[in-house]
Amino acid sequence: xxxxxxxxxxxxxxxxxxxxxxxxxxxxxxxxxxxxxxxxxxxxxxxxxxxxxxxxxxxxxxxxxxxxxxxxxxxxxxxxxxxxxxxxxxxxxxxxxxxxxxxxxxxxxxxxxxxxxxxxxxxxxxxxxxxxxxxxxxxxxxxxxxxxxxxxxxxxxxxxxxxxxxxxxxxxxxxxxxxxxxxxxxxxxxxxxxxxxxxxxxxxxxxxxxxxxxxxxxxxxxxxxxxxxxxxxxxxxxxxx
Amino acid sequence: xxxxxxxxxxxxxxxxxxxxxxxxxxxxxxxxxxxxxxxxxxxxxxxxxxxxxxxxxxxxxxxxxxxxxxxxxxxxxxxxxxxxxxxxxxxxxxxxxxxxxxxxxxxxxxxxxxxxxxxxxxxxxxxxxxxxxxxxxxxxxxxxxxxxxxxxxxxxxxxxxxxxxxxxxxxxxxxxxxxxxxxxxxxxxxxxxxxxxxxxxxxxxxxxxxxxxxxxxxxxxxxxxxxxxxxxxxxxxxxxxxxxxxxxxxxxxxxxxxxxxxxxxxxxxxxxxxxxxxxxxxxxxxxxxxxxx
Lengths: 241, 293
Hints:
The complex is a heterodimer of chains A (241) and B (293).
Chain A: E1 11-22, E2 25-36, E3 40-45, H1 51-59, E4 66-71, E5 79-82, H2 96-106, H3 116-128, H4 144-156, E6 162-166, H5 174-190, E7 194-198, H6 202-206, E8 211-216, E9 219-224, H7 225-228, H8 231-238
Parallel strand pairs in A: 3-7, 3-8, 5-6, 6-7
Antiparallel strand pairs in A: 1-2, 1-4, 8-9
Chain B: H1 2-6, H2 15-37, H3 41-63, H4 73-102, H5 107-127, H6 134-140, H7 149-168, H8 170-178, H9 180-185, H10 190-212, H11 214-229, H12 235-260, H13 264-292
């Protein structure tokens, strides 16, 4: 996108020689990369390679052991985070609407009560992800794909600059997987929302995302998805050395 | 029926005890909802026992001659008991939260060990107390019968304040309980919200233990939400129905206990358990009917 003005090509998240880990153990070493506005990026790696660690580091959920992570001021509290749906306990008596409403309500200061404009916004977002007809259904009763859509609606209700998704297609059937990837592509292309997603589904990801970030041997590789995730290359890259 | 209504008349001898029992039954389920949703039921058993250990500790110090006198006579004893109970409960919550954050061992094993220690500690501190033991044992089992008008007013005011607080911060408490990681990404200080919620829980339990004892406090925390969850598909009705079941158990248990001359706490627990069993059977029957139609 060489003709776009600088404001539209601005960097939203920047890592400069950032290392992440736990209790002094380095999991990701010297990662340097930029997440630029409007990108659709897939983050891949073998099981246990450190995808979640890098992901959490980029979001600021864990501090870097060294180096630095910089978030652009405009994404402060405007990161649409979509966690793995299995992390959310089905014991809570919450409807799809209640869950989607948690996004905009969560960023309100505690002394402000959510008004009707938040209800309207949440309904709009549920409609955008095709879940308006399920708003009164209990979240735990929904299928994996439907729950994922509700969580995407929750993130969209924040008017995010960037959507960050943790394994959004894990454990759901191929039809639901394809429809979620299509929804994300649409949000990226039509609403210009930057998307960063962690995924195991490398082949379906390869045709959807433009750039891939791949973790190998504690390091980070970044490049065009078609090239980096090519079947001939990916087996070599993901094999444990 | 007339006898039942006579219990609610202001001239009734145990008027304060009745309303104290209803107030604890009404309020404890509101925080019990969080115990159930956060899967912290074991903590619901441990905290009332820790609170009881706090009461024993304060009177143990008093028996050794270390005492504070802020009120006259019995009122001072109750104030000290409340202070000991609250300090122990809130301190235990903070210590458990600290170890939880460090992630060492399992939370069940930590809470189990603390419960055992608190249980033993409460008994040993009573046994080692050089001054009277009978009164102290009564206090550890909850002194519902001797609740004064002043105690009742304090209880109602504190619970009213806590209800307003829970209502004001409900959205935040719910978010940090349901989806901690997203809450952090949204900029919430999850640890601070946890500590605020735990402080409310600590105060509520301390007062509950002093009024109705640890066992009934635990029962009011857990049984009403368990029954209400069978039918409630949204959070607001879940809170309200849990609270109504708790308040009703407190009132009906008191009436039964008074007329049958049964001990109060087990009677209240029996009433709450009958409601739970009824809710379970009704849900089963409704589900079976829905499946067959």
